[in-house]
Amino acid sequence: QLGNLADLLVRQKQPDRAIAIYREYAQRHPDDLDLWRQMGQFLISQSKIAETESIYRRVIQIHPKNIQLSEIYDYLNLAAIQGQQGKGSDAIATTEKAIQLSKKNRS
């Protein structure tokens, strides 16, 4: 599994190689939602916050049309990343989107 390979490369002090492998795999599988989420979590674990924002934007873009709790979670992750980058107004807008989705999910 790709996550296990990434963890192994980090233990071998090769996190940049792990990121390159994630990116290469993502190019070959652009609609693999789980892959993009996994890459986002990996980049967060490596403190690559600026790079992670585009990953979560992609995750949100390829969501299926039906609203799932995981989609709300992805919006909240994006909001947290935006907040860490000092993008307060973007973080608020993204959080509001998550709240709207949550309300739709309950209806």
Description:
The structure is a single chain. The protein has six helices and no strands. With 107 residues, it is mainly alpha-helical. Helix 4 (49-61) packs antiparallel against helix 5.
Count of helical regions:
6
- What's the order of the H and E elements? HHHHHH
Report, as a whole number of angstroms, the end-to-end distance. Answer: 37 Å
Principal-axis shape equals: globular
Task: Please indicate the percent range of residues in DSSP E strands (runs of 2 or more).
Answer: under 5%
Mean pLDDT over the full residue set:
87
Q: Nearest-angstrom radius of gyration?
A: 15 Å
Q: SS-based structural class? A: mainly alpha
Provide a quick synopsis of the model.
With 107 residues, the protein is mostly helical. 79% of the residues lie in helices and 0% in strands.
Features:
single chain; 107 residues; mainly alpha; 6 helices
Helices, strands, pairings?
Layout: H1 2-11, H2 15-28, H3 33-45, H4 49-61, H5 69-84, H6 88-106
Helix pairs in contact: 1-2, 2-3, 3-4, 4-5, 5-6
